[in-house]
Design goal:
alpha/beta, Rossmann fold, 7-stranded mixed beta sheet
Length: about 260
């Protein structure tokens, strides 16, 4: 069954079996988790090597009804393991018992890749590992450390809870239709952080990080002040710095200083 790639869904179907195999083999089953949620399986290019491992239980979320029909026609997964729904509106309790862990994997649709990572953050207590392919720029941004122009909101939020590794690059020719940019595969492995230091709530931490990077060319004193924070409470050593200069631990300290 032929499936047409839909631009509005950001679909670029992976056609390189070696790249798909490498993604599947990159899953480490961190903390003993064997349940994998594949996001955007499309034509099943990654689904096959995931199944071929033999040690993973696969469910899939796919918003494109044509792709779901194709997957069902191939018989790769049981029909009750494929959910035709938008991941960003989906409740994982539909596939997994409430509170149980699952790994997130996929050749992620480019147009919602950052939003998928924000969902991983939301599900951080249930997702011990995430392995996937993104636009190379996004993959590098997530794995980047302080001091780089690529370092940003997602870098800080994700690195607070995950150890992140850039695994390999995939060229445009590996897809149909080929995207205009290269892709990068990264692996996120959950660390042991359950609560942020200094008794900082995640929502407050996220707000501080977003405001700090919202005007990243400004010093933190000016960006945070214009974002409604009391500049007097910013530790002196941070006031003249820009957001990209702070480590994850620095941001945690900064968020603590700005608590009401």
């Amino acid at each position: 069954m032929y499936v047409r790639a839909k631009k509005h869904l950001g679909q670029h179907f992976l056609r390189d079996p070696d790249a798909a195999r490498r993604i599947a083999e990159s899953i480490t089953k961190h903390r003993g988790c064997c349940d994998v949620l594949e996001v955007g399986p499309g034509t099943g290019a990654l689904t096959r090597p995931l199944l071929n491992r033999g040690d993973l239980n696969i469910c899939a979320v796919e918003v494109d009804a044509e792709s779901v029909a194709n997957l069902n026609s191939q018989g790769l997964l049981q029909t009750n393991k494929v959910f035709c729904v938008d991941l960003l509106k989906w409740d994982p309790n539909e596939a997994y018992p409430e509170g149980s862990p699952f790994i997130v994997a996929g050749n992620f649709p480019y147009n919602i890749s950052s939003q998928i990572l924000f969902r991983v953050i939301d599900w951080r207590d249930r997702v011990p590992e995430c392995v996937g392919m993104f636009q190379k720029e996004v993959a590098e941004r997530v794995a980047e450390g302080p001091g780089s122009k690529s370092y940003g909101i997602l870098s800080v939020l994700l690195q607070s809870y995950y150890d992140i590794e850039y695994l390999f690059t995939v060229h445009e020719s590996a897809f149909a239709p080929p995207p205009k940019v290269k892709s990068g595969v990264i692996r996120l492995v959950r660390n042991d952080v359950t609560e942020l230091p200094y008794n900082v709530s995640f929502e407050h931490f996220k707000k501080v990080v977003k405001v700090a990077f919202g005007q990243r060319r400004k010093t933190l004193r000016n960006s945070l002040k214009s974002g409604g924070f009391d500049a007097i409470r910013i530790p002196e050593r941070f006031q003249g710095q820009r957001a990209e200069q702070l480590s994850v631990a620095d941001f945690q300290e900064l968020a603590s200083a700005l608590k009401h």
